[in-house]
Design a protein that fits this description.
Strand content: 5-15%
Order of helices and strands: EHEHHHEEHHEHEHEHHHH
CATH topology of one domain: Rossmann fold
Radius of gyration: 17 Å
Strand order of the largest sheet: 3-4-2-5-1-6-7
Keywords: Plasmid
Organism: Allocoleopsis franciscana PCC 7113
Oligomer: single chain
Structural class: alpha/beta
Protein name: ATPase involved in chromosome partitioning
CATH class of one domain: Alpha Beta
Number of helices: 12
Largest sheet: 7 strands, mixed
CATH architecture of one domain: 3-Layer(aba) Sandwich
Bound molecules: adenosine-5'-diphosphate, magnesium ion
Helix content: 40-55%
Distance between the termini: 31 Å
Number of strands: 7
Family: Belongs to the ParA family.
Length: about 260
């Protein structure tokens, strides 16, 4: 099961959600997390400093290394395909390759035999790297920050998903939208949640992840939230998605198509 965490907006908790979900999936299965962002926040957030000579996502997508040669263990228990700024160069190098949107899918193939779940942390853009992630993925999870302009850009993300479903990867499903950094007692959060339900009626909206400084602290500690904080309300939304991924998706639910929000 390959899940891409994508939203071209930055700062919506794609990386944090990758770490939290990955950590919970590890409780019942094996999980590889892939850093597909040249900013390498996932790599840094798992406490890894890429040293010279360390193979990264760049080497894998430019076919200079096999994925399993580049994967490293982290103290969280998650296996990581690390990244660094060279991935930005990698994206440019892919531009001239034939079938360049399918390279990640092809390069991840050997990891599928080794790991039950692969989570791909996407960069904040709808460029070639994100298209590669969506072409390789079985499902996409869309973190959305409960903030002003949260829904801005969602329509173009959904259009991209539809194009990929139509042209490249018909079995790509939308797992759902994950509202993050929710402050349930504010009008803004209530407003965002109501708008999501109204505008994207055929896409599941998961229970929101509350806003808490514990998430930034857990990132600094290089640990998923359930290792770091005992508050059930912080862990429960991620737990529900982990259960959903290991259960419902593994049984292979029918493909969900996207209806564009107006
Ligand atoms: N639920 C949350 N509450 C408060 N801060 C959060 C929460 N989730 C993530 N953050 C923080 O928000 C910032 C952006 O999160 P990040 O996962 O890096 O987003 P993205 O990968 O989408 O750019 C980080 O500093 C992170 O620690
Ligand atoms: Mg990120």
């Amino acid at each position: 099961m390959i899940v891409a965490l994508a939203n071209q907006k930055g700062g919506v908790a794609k990386t944090t959600s990758t770490i939290c979900l990955g950590g919970l999936l590890l409780e019942s299965s094996s999980c590889l997390v892939v850093d597909l962002d040249p900013q390498a926040n996932l790599t840094i957030g798992l406490g890894v400093e890429v040293q010279s000579g360390q193979l990264t996502t760049y080497d894998v997508i430019t076919e200079q290394a096999e994925v399993l040669e580049a994967v490293i263990p982290t103290k969280s228990g998650l296996s990581l395909l690390p990244s660094d700024i060279s991935l930005a160069k990698g994206e440019t190098e892919l531009l001239t390759k034939v079938g360049n949107f399918l390279i990640l899918k092809e390069r991840l193939e050997p990891a599928k035999a080794q790991f039950q779940h692969i989570l791909i942390d996407c960069p904040p853009s709808l460029g070639l790297l994100t298209v590669n992630a969506l072409s390789a993925a079985d499902a996409i999870l869309i973190p959305v920050q409960c903030q002003f302009f949260a829904l801005k850009g969602l329509a173009s993300l959904l259009e991209t998903i539809q194009s990929i479903q139509r042209r490249i990867n018909p079995s790509l499903r939308i797992l759902g939208i994950l509202p993050t950094m929710a402050e349930m007692n504010t009008i803004m959060t209530q407003d965002v949640l109501a708008s999501l339900q109204k505008r994207f009626q055929d896409i599941p909206v998961f229970d929101p992840v509350p806003k808490s400084v514990k998430f930034a602290e857990s990132n600094l500690a290089g640990e998923p939230i359930h290792h770091y904080a005992s508050e059930k309300k912080l862990v429960a939304p991620y737990k529900a998605i982990a259960t959903f991924i290991t259960g419902e998706l593994r049984r292979g639910k029918k493909t969900r198509s996207v209806k564009r929000g107006e």
